[in-house]
Structures
1.
Amino acid sequence: MDVERIRSDFPILNDITYMDSASTSLTPEPVLEAILEYYREFNANVGRGVHRLSQLASLKYDDAHRKVAGFIGAQNEDVVFTKNSTEAINLVASGLGLGKGDRVVTTLIEHHSNFLPWMRLKKFGVDLGVVLPGEDGLFNASDFEYALDDKTRVVAVTHASNVLGTISPIREISRICKEQGVLLLVDGAQSAPHMHVDVRELGCDFFIFSGHKMLGPTGTGVLWAKDPEVIEPLFYGGGMIEDVSIDTCTLAQGYERLEAGTPHIAGGIGLGKAVDYLEGVGMDAIGNHEARLTKKILDGLVDIRGVQVYGSLDPAHRIGVVSFNVESLNPHDVALMLDEAAGIMVRSGHHCCIPLMKHFGLEAGTLRASLYLYNTEEEVDRFLEVVWEIARVA
Ligand SMILES: Cc1ncc(COP(=O)(O)O)c(C=O)c1O
């Protein structure tokens, strides 16, 4: 994988080191060009017009759905474009008609986006079970077996933690869910951008992820459902119906059913281009590159006196998201020092995972360095040097 070549597509990297891709990734030139091309050359609404421009926009927008579906091994075109993962999860949580007597099982490591939409259902009488990870952030699949009862309708679990970088045993959880007739939602916001994903192999019923974390534009996310018909739309309006009369309507088939109103057309097309870009580089090559950098960063951090790293250190069970603290320094202060001293951008704080932070007793949260295809060994070396310096004077 030619990292220097890749970096030339990201001019923003000229004078910074970006290690915050778990928050949102950078956007390469070809994706920016695809967005501009839409506005410059065929800026029209989709699925609504017979004129040339609308036909072309619709074609490109449909094509983007097909590419994104292919990216996660989906066999249909029914990936729904949303504005982010949060919207995708809310569509499922609110659209399954869950109520009194139903139970949802989730985990303590979830991003708030895969926790609060389920917690909200308590208002409607839904019981919420929360599976805890071990100290290393890893799950014992059998804990899900104990957590499921005959009322459980849904298990909602992250594929890869946005705090600890740990990977969940989705296939085992899927087997348990299937045995008990329970639907499985996998939050792939941190996995889809970094590893080869095949929703059929994972054995889930819903898979969601964010376009903006995988080189796509902000305002893009994806929901794949094995059977989209089980989700009652949250939004009704233009673009999502087949027919309407004064007292009833027939909903459209396919992704349109869950994409009411004018969608983020340029964003969707940009996301399709991001998929082209990632597939052009190769997901396995990206995964291997990140694994190398992750090992280097983990080995380096654990060797620095005063640095505490969280989550399993076993590279086989993690992605390139590394949470740590330096002595008792506030993580926000350390993040500012990294930026000021060396132009290194890392995230600091709770990472939208306050229940997990409370569980680990981390009042102020952690620092989080997250890597992607454009990061280099030299950047990791420089990062470790600066952390070492900060820890030395702390
Ligand atoms: C694991 C996980 N799930 C969900 C989300 C929410 O994504 P979005 O902000 O695109 O809705 C994030 C964002 O960081 C995440 O890391």
Note: The chain has a mean pLDDT of 96.
2.
Amino acid sequence: MSGKGGEEPRGHRAATIGIHAGSPEPVLGAPVVSPVVQSSTFIGGAGEPASELLYSRYGNNPNQVLVGEKMAALEGTEASLLLASGMSAIAMTIFAALPEGGHVVASRHLYGATRTLLEQELPRRGITTTLIDPESSEDWEAALTPQTGVLLLEVPANPTLRVFDLRVPAEIARDSEILLAVDGTFASPANIRFAELGVGAVVHSATKYLGGHSDLVGGVVSGSREFIERVQNLMKLYGPAPDPHMAWLLDRGLKTLQMRVAQHNHNAMELARWFLDREGVVEVHYPGLPDHPDHAVASEIMSGFGGMLAIVLEGGGVAADAFTSTLELALVAPSLGGVETLVSQPRHTSHIHFSEAMRVGIGIPDGFVRISVGLEDVEDLKEDFGRALDGLR
Ligand SMILES: Cc1ncc(COP(=O)(O)O)c(C=O)c1O
């Protein structure tokens, strides 16, 4: 079983937990950095059944366990499990929560692949979904059926940066004994304390801020020990277990999570304000801006507004293509949360399978450019974006 968080012995704070939680007791001569245990299997007792079979697909390799313990401590949950990707973390969470015939009520504002999973893949397994605009408790309640076992949303949402108030579904989930699952990838545990807000299953694509260096693919689910055990049992069957080396890289990334995210928050806020005054930029989406539709909620539930922002360019898709193709420092690539600034147009990447009308319906018009603000000097980023905007005139 991975992760026994909530047991941080000395009540350490997040930056300390990110560095030390999960590490073995320090003993003379032990390495300061836990080594990669690149072994698929482990020797068991001969002639008698082992209490626990150690096998890396089961999620009990030492590197997997260390990251599970660290993540649980960071989230403040009983347990956490590391999986092979964010998508496998989402899929296994839904499978673990629902029987055949189960029903999900989900926000319409989700990462494209999550929506495709809900709308196209899960119905083949007898699981149906109602998509809603999660603005109020009536929106959630109207969609509930006796089969509803999961409420699902992303906070902040990819790529529109909407910050829906997760305390609303949290209350419904508590009253109705339904699992509230939240994809917190854009926030990371450094910006939102999900479990404290009533989230039952906190899911992250570890590929993004948790790893932080665009060099791994992974996912994490955190929640009660009983629920994480169910997810782990499904991981054993379906097989999306993490490689030990990925777990080791993720542990290294988590050691600097607080520091990195603080600087991502700072750079993104600075750039968002700067974009407001730029000619050719018709919209700036950043929860830290006072005129963002969810600024009040974001101010209450986020300790920082995150490293993701989006702009909409005058001139639509043509302008966005020209803008992104003339950037010299920011890289055009999908994914996010790494030290380098990445830009993408959701119509070409995460929301490529959506019609234009569907995209516009959730606030992604042509001309929408998503920016994962990295850790470069923000003045260099302004110069790069400024040059690309000048080129549009
Ligand atoms: C919000 C969000 N959730 C989940 C995922 C899927 O994560 P992964 O690529 O690690 O499977 C992504 C990927 O971009 C994402 O942006």
Note: The chain has two domains: 14-255, 258-390.
